[in-house]
Structure formats: C-alpha cells, structure tokens
Design goal:
elongated
C-alpha cells in the first residue's frame, strides 16, 4: 500500500530510524540531502527563496557522490529552472529502483516550480521596465514576491519524499537553526524590512 504525505509527515522531522543491515544500497553516502520541513520553510520564506538555491546545490552534491556522476552541482543550482525536472526524476528513480512507493507527482511538482519562477521573473521585469501607474507597479512587485514564496511549495513536496527515502539511513537530524543559518536569517529579515520601507516610500511619493 502506497505511503501518503499525511501518513509520514508527522514523524519524518522528528525521527529517522536506523537500518543496521546496511543492505539498501552499495553506492556511496546517502542519495539526497536531508533537512526538516519546518527548517526548510523557515529558511526559504525568511530568505525570500535564497535558501532554495542552497537546497538545489546540496541535493545535486549528494546525487553526484551517491551515483558517482560527472556533474557540477553549483551550476545546476544556479540554473535550477533547467534542472528541476531532472532532479525530481532522480527522486522518482530512487523510489522505483528500491521498490518504495510515495504518492507525490514529481513531474507535476517540477513543472509547477518552473512556471512559478518564470511568472515571477516576468512580473518583476514588467514592474521595473515599463511605465505604468503606481498601483500596477506595486501590484506587480507584490505578485512577483508572492510567486517567489509560492515556489517553495513544490520544493517542500520534494523534501517530504526525500525525508521518506532517508528513513532507513539512520538519524540524519538537520532540524536545528545553526549559526550560519542565523546569519542568513538576519540578512533575510533586513531584506524584508528594506522591501517594506520601499513600498512605504513609493507610496509616500506617488501616493494618492
């Protein structure tokens, strides 16, 4: 019987069981990067999606080591738009290879991410490069920001599957906010503050 997101979500972040037999795979390391769902959401939202670039880098780094591939994780993270489907296919491929089931619709999730990023880019581009009333400038900027946040949804979906995959690999706890995380969170908070100040400044100049 297929495992659903609801059945595993409650225990994935808090407990990862240990497989002492070590017979799941002969490849090196673990297949994917583990991070708790709560931490992923917090870091992604506060940093306005910047953490997802790190997320893509870490996933490709683990895949490179595990499958012994000749790939460059950093470019694949920077140009994640072009490699999202490939990454999600690795997730599906691992499930099939190890005869494990998880209902999550990987291809649709990857497509959703790609389209959200494309729409975010164009709304931001139009708001900065075309003359229009203040209302539409602010509206497009807000839509672009909202789309960046919505792009986290397919990433969270993928991480839920990854955390399910990593259950047999032992205690891979990555749910604590580290010093480096705090540094990026502070930058994110400052960025959110600057955005809010910019909105108020624009409104004060061109307001009704």
């Amino acid at each position: 019987m297929a495992t659903t997101e609801n059945e595993t979500n409650s225990n994935i972040d808090n407990q990862i069981t240990t497989d002492t037999s070590d017979t799941l795979h002969n490849k090196q390391g673990i297949p994917f990067f583990h991070v708790s769902i709560n931490k992923l959401i917090i870091m992604s939202v506060v940093t306005m999606g910047l953490y997802t670039l790190y997320w893509f880098y870490k996933q490709w780094k683990e895949i490179k080591i595990y499958y012994q591939l000749d790939i460059w994780p950093i470019p694949r993270a920077i140009f994640a738009l072009f490699f999202t489907h490939s990454l999600f296919r690795y997730i599906d491929g691992y499930l099939d290879e190890n005869q494990r089931e998880y209902k999550w619709q990987g291809s649709s999730s990857a497509t959703l991410y790609v389209w959200i990023i494309i729409l975010s880019f164009f709304t931001n581009y139009f708001s900065e490069n075309f003359e229009m009333p203040l209302f539409w400038i602010i509206t497009l900027m807000a839509i672009s920001l909202l789309l960046n946040l919505l792009a986290i949804i397919p990433i969270v979906r993928a991480q839920k599957v990854i955390n399910f995959i990593l259950l047999p690999f032992g205690a891979l706890n990555n749910n604590q906010i580290t010093g480096a995380n705090i540094f990026w969170l502070l930058i994110g908070v400052l960025s959110w503050g600057l955005i809010a100040m910019s909105f108020f400044h624009i409104h004060s100049i061109y307001g009704t």
